[in-house]
Amino acid sequence: MKKYLEELHKLRVFRLNEVESLVGNLNSAKDLLQNYKKQKLICQVRRDLYAATDLVSKQSLSNKFEIAGKITPTSYLSYQSALEFHGLAHQVFYDLWVSSNNRFTSFDFEGIRYQYCESKSMEGVISPHTSSFIRVTNLERTVIDCIDKIERCGGLEELIQCFSLITYLNEELLLDYLQVYNKQFLYQKAGFILEYFKQEMKLSKDFFGICKQKMGKSTRYLTDQSESTHYFKVWKLCAPANILSFLEQGGQSYV
């Protein structure tokens, strides 16, 4: 029986309780899911999470971003995966960073590793107008998150390559998200890194002035001590001598 297939295609990614609401009975819902799985009309993403499949390829109709938004009631794309969604990724990664207030065990599905991250805030989490199935941090929140956890952006080189593609940031939003975290080191890193792109991103002197006021007096390392060998007095930060050299390595010329 395929009478519910159209409705499941509209849902795209769904749980048992949604199917129960559709058919009106728990046992009937379980039977339907089992039957459709055997016919490969749906596939199981993980425990109690299913996706409608393409009738030809038998692969899920939903893309990885849509699946991420259904893992938990609060799950959303973050860090490098959010940059990728915003069209700023420089490399291809098979780990998808998914933040959530509800903890879940990281899992693999169709060649993608869905990696759990604890959500620190729901500020700046949006559902883009292009798809109501997706939740993702907006660009400003994504930038602050990636500066906070550079390793979740694929490392400093990937971060610099991605940031070089950004043509505007709302600095009021940047400051809002910096205040949400309220970490001196994050103000320090944000001011240092974003100063390299202040013209392209349209950031004012006031933004960097606030970062300097909030960063504290400690000297810190941007990356591993073996790599961050140059001291930048203004930001009290040890970092690679020229982080824009990563753009030259990637084929762009900024210096």
End-to-end separation in angstroms reads 64 Å
* Strand runs, count: 12
DSSP strand (E) fraction?
15-25%
Helix percent band: 25-40%
Helix and strand content put the structural class at alpha+beta
**What's the mean pLDDT score?**
93
- The coarse silhouette is elongated
Spatial extent as radius of gyration: 22 Å
Low-confidence stretches: 251-255
Tell me about the largest β-sheet.
4 strands, mixed
The spatial strand order of the largest sheet comes to 4-5-7-6
Core attributes:
12 helices; three-stranded antiparallel β-sheet; 12 strands; four-stranded mixed β-sheet; alpha+beta
Secondary structure topology:
Blueprint lengths: L4 H7 L1 E2 L1 H8 L2 H13 L3 E5 L2 E4 L11 H5 L7 E2 L1 H7 L9 E6 L6 E3 L2 E7 L6 E2 L9 E2 L1 H10 L7 H8 L7 H11 L2 H12 L2 H4 L3 H10 L5 E2 L8 E3 L4 E3 L5 H5 L6
Parallel strand pairs: 5-7, 10-12
Antiparallel strand pairs: 1-3, 2-3, 4-5, 6-7, 8-9, 11-12
Helix pairs in contact: 2-3, 5-6, 6-8, 9-11
Task: Walk me through the structure.
By secondary structure, the protein is an alpha+beta fold. It folds into 2 domains: 5-52, no CATH class; 64-249, no CATH class. The chain contains 12 helices and 12 strands. Helix 5 (79-85) runs antiparallel to helix 6, helix 6 crosses helix 8 (171-181) and helix 9 packs antiparallel against helix 11. Mean pLDDT is 93; it is low at 251-255.
